[in-house]
Structure prediction request, 182 residues.
Amino acid sequence: MDTNQNYFQSRLRNWVQPALLAISLLTFSLTAYLMYERTQEKYFKNRAEQVAKAVATTLRLGIQHRAAAVQSLANSVHDWSDLRLNRSGSPLVENIYGFYAVNKINRQGVIEEVFPIEQNRSALNKNLFQRPELAPYLTASRAENKVLMSHQIMTYQGIYAITLYAPILDNTGKVLGWFHTV
Prediction:
């Protein structure tokens, strides 16, 4: 009987030990894999958040710099009749990436002058107050006396763009019109 019992114990031990070892290896492998995946997922999530923050910061700074450039030009004008876009608008369009056009808008909302002329001729003499999606930007820009940025719109040039409106004031603070960039 002892021999039979020893035989069964020996067979059981020979079967159980490798099974326990296999289960332990499987558990260890799964745990290591899941920890690796979790670490990788966390790393990529953190990396994606860092990239998104960097992109958002770059966009925000780019918009702020463009708005500051437009505001600076608007502040330098005190005589509406002396304003010529080929002089004042060309540095924006030619030297700062992202500017497609600069327009001179009078206080009635009519685009009086465009730069560059060739690609923006279709915008000449158009009244922005007649476009319900644009009129609020002009009105708010005039009331707040600051550069405002529109949502994405279809422009007269046939492109989707975000536009900036910078009020041009005379010496008394009265709005003469706007610098309008596309």
